[in-house]
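for the record, two folds in this file. i put them one after another cuz i was lazy. first one right below, seq on top, structure tokens after. the second one comes after a little note so u can tell where it starts
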Amino acid sequence: MFDFLKAIIQYRHMLWSLTKNDFKQRYLGNMLGVIWAFIQPTATVLIFWFVFQVGFKAQPVDDFPFILWLITGMFPWFYFSEGLTNGTSSIVANNFLVKKVVFRVSLLPIVSLMTALAMHAFFICFMFAMFLYYGYSAEVYWLQIPYYLFSLSILLLGLSWLTSSIIVFFKDTGQFIAMMLQFGFWLTPIFWSMKMVPEKYHWIVQLNPLVYIIDGYRNSMIYHQWFWNDINMTLYFWLVTPGIFILGGLTFRKLRPHFTDVL
């Protein structure tokens, strides 16, 4: 871990350069360029808002406007989905760095995460602006958002190490991740409330570590609760996430020497 953190500092300029290039290349040739990175998630939120608020006449959730309740769940999901999708393909997409350049390959998933993080930072600011627009003043609980963002980033990095190393040998991994993200979206309480699930089944839903993050964003922005108030979920998350982080790191380290032969 010490060597890994040292490598981040050592290659920080290259990481920043790769992040900017990654951001540009995704939307190269489009008339609106990188603006598309923000248009698509925004359009998704507006579609869901229109369907459920206008079409199905969704009522305020716990006396909060439905759109505010919705974005506190969808914005962290966007970061997770974008980070995992691009983190999974980070090694294959940058195979020239694996084969020809002396570079710590384990840093490549961080480039994808930094790109997704830049977009998420915009949506966090947008979320704050929406709450202020609706007349809700800033609260000290909002300061928890960086904590949940850090927690989600650690989870993402471990998963990205795992999936990015496996996809080199099994190309179907990308399709499997896309399918799991589709299932995960509907099985995670993003636009539905845990109150809709019988209490005896809550523990099954809460096995998903993303529930901790989604609830954390809402507890910070809406319900005004500190993360230590639900100590059981906090302990569970920080038992599962380091396990995924270590598993991803060990898998990456084990498969790394064979990347060049396969790519």
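(here's the note) second protein begins now
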Amino acid sequence: MDPALAALGEFGLIGLIRDRIRQRSPGTRLGIGDDAAVLEAAPGHEVLVTTDMLLEDVHFKRAWGCSRELGRKTLAVNVSDIAAMGGRPHHAFLALGIPCQGITLAELEAVLAGLEDEAAATEVTLAGGDTCASRSGLVLCVTLLGSVPAGQAVRRSGARAGDGVWVTGGLGGSAAGFVALERGLRPGMAWPADLPRPSWLGSAEEADLRSAMAAHLTPTPRLAAGQALRRCATAMIDLSDGLASDLRHICAESGVGALVRAGGIPLHPGALVAARWTGRDGLDLALRGGEDYELLFTSRADPRPVLAGAAPGLPVVRIGEVVDGPPAPTLETGDGRTEALAGGFDHLRHAT
């Protein structure tokens, strides 16, 4: 173990974390330092609770050398869940599994600094958690509390036939960024000398790949958009496992079908570059790549006027509609054929 980390010890690390965090959230009666935090609920609001883990060699690789970005993402993926319910995040709790070998105190400090960067950007307070040794890789698990006005949480179960199916941003960027990282590209570093560069891949294409890496490493939760969409969204989910999988969740919970038009799906520019580079279909990256953390929602009304004020500049596109029928999504291809929209990331199936 890193001598500096061993000298600090578990309780020294907790003290370091306590010294670094800042109080930002209303309702914090007592934070880090006791057996439990003491929080005060806002009058007229309901509490939202979500938990997400990031596991080494499943969600990230420490060899990428992106510790600060990892800290940001650890919190951001949870904030995205709160955004998808139309809520506002308040308090986070971090469970940290630290490998016995191979990690340094400097790496952990960078992770914590990144988490605090994201906390500052989203007005979240780290209010507690746990630390322990891990016999495998680094484990980061955040439980995040948020709130939403009573009765206004946007669920997955409200879609009805005739609603439009909408999505924010461009899709497939995170999957493309993962491809670039796996092949050796790194943020802020030149193209690796030992990585063959296709003749067609110029500066514009490289910029698109680097934008995709940023989308993978530091996703942007659509908080303002999610809160504004309480005014018109009938169902909503964040795109963590891919459009195919996440739209299937809305269909299942709402008891409806959905028709999506392939030609209407907005692709991240990096997805097109990665597709050409790898021979994979760019649309497949958008449908099944996952970790875009955009908002997928249904709405009877046009949401663009709502989002223009709350999230100016954020693209939002109608990609299909909710229909009566079996509770599953269908894809209309470019030649007018329809097929079941299946696939997406499933941890247990991918683990075998």
